[in-house]
Each structure stands twice: as C-alpha cells, then as structure tokens.
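Question (not urgent): is this output format expected?
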Amino acid sequence: MQQRKLGETGLSVSTLCLGTMTFGEADERSFMHGVGCDERTSHAIMSRALDAGCNFFDTADIYGQDGLSERIIGGWFKETGRRDEVVLATKFRFTMPYGKGGSRRHILRACEESLRRLRTDHIDLYQIHMQDLDTPEEETLRALDDLVRQGKVLYTGASNYTAWRLMDSAWTSRTEGLARYCALQMQYSLLERNIEWELVPACRRMGVGIIAWSPLASGFLSGKYRRDAPPPEDSRLARWRSHLAKAETERGWAVIDALHVIAAELHSTPARVALAWLLRKDCVTSVIFGARTLGQLEDNLAAAALVLDTDQLRRLDEASALPLIYPYEFNQRISGRW
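Got this back:
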C-alpha cells in the first residue's frame, strides 16, 4: 500500500487508515450500541490490515463507551507486540467521566487515560476531536505542546475545525513557537464536499495533511442503497434514518448511479470506487475506512490499488458537484475560479 507524508512532517502513513469506531460491543450507553464487532473480530481486522500494509490506525476516547475502542487496541498491542509497526492516532474533546473540552486540565488527564487504555507510552498523532469555542486556542495548543515536549505525543492534529479557527491555530503556533497541527481530520466524500471551499485551500497553503473520515457517507456509498428501494434491515442507515434522509436527494442518487456504472466498468464495487476517488485528491493524506467483518476489510483494502481514469473522475466530480454560493459563485462568474 502506498505511503504518504503526513502534512509537512517526516512521518509516512498508509493512504488508507483503519478506523476503529466499531471495535467492541458497546452497551446501551453508547451511540455505537448494536453496530460494533466483538473483540476477537477486532483483533483479526487489525492484524490483517497491518499485514496488508495499512499501518495507520485511528481511534478516539469516546468510541464505544469508557474508552472501549482504545482498550481493545491496547489489548491487541499486548497480545501481538506490534505497537511499533503502527502509526497510532487518537482523539480527545468530547465528554468522558473525567471531563470534556480543550482545556489544559482536560487534555492532560485525557492523554494519561488514553495512554493507559492503549497500553503504550506515546501517541503518534493526538487530535482535538472538535474545536472548543469556550477555550482559547492558545491554551489548547500549549497543553499539546507540553505533551510533545514530554514525548507522550509525537504529532498533533485537529478534527471538525472551521477554516478561521484552523488559521487562528496556525498563527498562534507560529508566533508563540508551539507545536502546530500537521493534520486535519474532516468529513469528506462524494456526498460531503463543503471542505473544498475554504479548508482544502487553507490546508494546502499551510502544509496540513487532510485525513478524510466517513468516506462512504455512513455507508450510503457502499453499494447497499439504490433508488426506490428500502435500506437493508441490518444496515446502519436503516437505524439512523436521519442520516439517510440527508443523502436521499437527486444529487445523492446521481452519485449512487455514477458509482454503480463506473464500478461495473472496472469490475469493482461502488465502495472501492468512492474510496479511490478520494485517494486521487492531492490534498488528502489518508482516508479512514471502517470494517465490522474481515470481508468488509478486504473490500475496502482493494481500493488502494484501484485506478480511476480522467473521464471516470470527471463523471464523479460532476455527479457530486455542489452548487456554488456567494462569494464563490461571484468569483467563479467574474474570474473563472474561486
């Protein structure tokens, strides 16, 4: 599997990143209740992914409940002894028993708890899960910088940031001499392309690598869903109807139609085509995919080798294009670009 540098760092990661949100059988307290896989399957998925060249694993303290996903990864590290082969990313920010947010107090505690659950002495990429408007960005950055200086964290990143907050963070890091975010984890797919307006240009300018999450739009782009047909009963979107409603638009179905046509041309699957489209974006360092079974894992891993030609990329771009709004439409109309 191809490796790419994470932003402007010297760290190389696989172009596909194993997302671990579905690891563990969460109870009723968790939003992942009923859609995860057991510990044994989770361990098998990690081993097979790493054997296939996928060395980048992403988790978060809130996945499962009480750090369930992190605990399962930590158990796999202990069982296999393969910690040094993995570039490990985790996140903090949302509510845990000991607090929440981007404050110094919470970050230092959250890091220690994640290290304990993961059974490791360092986190390769530590990310704030969402901007915290109640905490000054400098406070967050100084706490992360201290963790970097202590060797507990090697690189820092952000997720679900607005462009203005990301630029504020970059300026603060530069002027105050603090470790800066080298990666931005954002929702990005054929259905969700809003980050192309501001965040993609900002990341290009600052040398920040984009890590795409939900590349299959919660499974909508997996090939399971078709026009005028109910979702499969065992699918996540059958349970999360609000997510499906957002995708069930003429644009959404046009994307589905294009995926199926191109998948047939390539003797592949819609899921692989959707992942391969993202992998062709020069701003993207890695694409996070999830798997609850070894079969799903193998299907997604095959996307790394799938090549889309120029015409196929154009058709996907056109089917998924968003209508430009002001000021992008104004700039496009006047100067031919935005």
